[in-house]
From TrEMBL:
It comes from Yinghuangia aomiensis. Keywords: Pyridoxal phosphate. Its cofactor is pyridoxal 5'-phosphate. The keyword Translocase does not apply. Residues 1-30 are annotated as: Disordered. It comes from the Bacteria. Belongs to the trans-sulfuration enzymes family. Coiled coil: none annotated. Pfam families: Cys_Met_Meta_PP. This is Cystathionine gamma-lyase.
Length: 377
């Protein structure tokens, strides 16, 4: 990107602060405010970027410019939620007679969209996040959807290898990049055609916005997905788009602190005799560590582990003071939940998904330690 004062910026933190914002002008603000408009002045035939509020909005444009910059994309399309982005990409691209591959161990709602597609003549294959298993499913697929690291299991697959194979067979590749964010992983640079994410999570990071986006390496793909958004009306509100853009300025600070906390938490849990099956891609010895280190710049904020049973897990969650029990991740507040309370994941009853926030590391570790002591007796 070109900085507003003229210099070329390559460092990701600086780009996150400046991307998509207006050029310097005397008396001008650092950031433009949200544009609340359903209707724009238009004389004669349609002309210019802004004609009607469902088609485009200057606040979306600023956010999408920033997202495309951070993702290294030709185009980015914002949506009203992460699931609007997921379903927009899948429904815009998967046609009757097509075959698509979806992660069997990824976000359950994505598989729900797959069920709707199967009802409409699309062949859907569910494959776990494993490079060899995915490679075997590629040859006659039209679209391969990856979620790496997977949620909640944190397995990782080789994006460049899958993308190279898929393209050889004429298939598109989309990566759900929600957990990593563009500062943790760049799917398009690794060979994918689409990077899809819920901006509700780490991207905005304050648990106050619902948002999603699709970034595309090909402008024509971006146009198809934008046309789908216009037709279905899955648009973001201008305030949500403005809040998301504002939040990008601290993304690098937040993900660095979250990574620090998640790493320390994973180390603590791995050494605890009452905790089993700790998974964190940033932890040496984790099954995904070598591959994650090769294709990710930051391993993310989520640590998962298993306690003896559901009751123990619930006692642990109830004993936490700083950490909230909630069903999301990526925010400045640390949160945790027993994932088995939701259907759709093949996990043990005592499986806990923990999203490390931005608290001071010693305080977070002390809270987890005392909660484990109470839960495990």
């Amino acid at each position: 990107m070109k900085h507003s004062r003229g210099g070329t910026v390559t460092s990701e933190g600086t780009r996150a602060i400046h991307a998509g914002h207006p050029p310097v002008r005397p008396g001008g603000p650092f950031t433009d405010g949200p544009v609340f408009a359903s209707t724009f002045h238009m004389s004669g035939d349609p002309d210019g970027p802004y004609q009607y509020g469902r088609f485009a909005n200057p606040t979306w444009t600023a956010l999408e410019t920033a997202l495309a910059d951070l993702e290294g994309a030709a185009a980015a399309v914002s949506f009203g939620s992460g699931m609007a982005a997921v379903s927009g990409a899948l429904l815009a691209l998967a046609q009757p007679g097509h075959t698509i591959v979806l992660p069997a161990d990824g976000y359950p709602a994505t598989r729900t969209v797959g069920t709707h597609l199967a009802d409409r003549g699309v062949t859907v294959r569910h494959v776990r996040t494993d490079t060899a298993a995915l490679a075997a499913a590629v040859p006659d697929a039209d679209l391969v959807w990856l979620e790496t690291p997977s949620n909640p299991g944190l397995d990782v697959c080789d994006i460049p290898a899958i993308a190279e194979l898929a393209h050889r067979h004429g298939a598109l590749v989309a990566v759900d990049n929600t957990l990593a964010t563009p500062l943790g992983q760049l799917p398009l640079a690794l060979g994918a055609d689409l990077s899809v994410a819920s901006g509700t999570k780490a991207l905005t990071g304050h648990s106050d916005v619902l948002l999603g986006y699709v970034a595309s390496a090909d402008p024509a793909l971006g146009d198809r997905i934008r046309a789908w958004r216009t037709m279905t009306g899955g648009i973001p509100g201008p305030m949500e788009a403005w809040l998301a853009h504002r939040s990008l300025a601290t993304l690098h600070l937040r993900v660095d602190r979250q990574t620090q906390n998640a790493t320390a938490l994973a180390e603590l849990l791995s050494a605890h005799p009452g905790v089993a099956d700790v998974r964190y891609p940033g932890l040496p010895g984790d099954p995904a560590h070598v591959l994650a280190t090769r294709q990710m710049r930051r391993p993310g904020c989520i640590v998962v582990f298993t306690l003896p049973d559901a009751d123990t897990a619930q006692r642990f969650l109830a004993a936490l003071d700083l950490v909230a029990e909630a069903t999301s991740f990526g925010g400045v507040h640390s949160i945790a939940e027993r994932r088995g309370r939701w259907p759709g994941d093949d996990i043990p009853a005592g499986f806990v998904r923990f999203s490390a926030g931005c608290e001071d590391t010693p305080d977070l570790l002390a809270d987890v330690t005392q909660a484990l002591d109470k839960a495990l007796g």
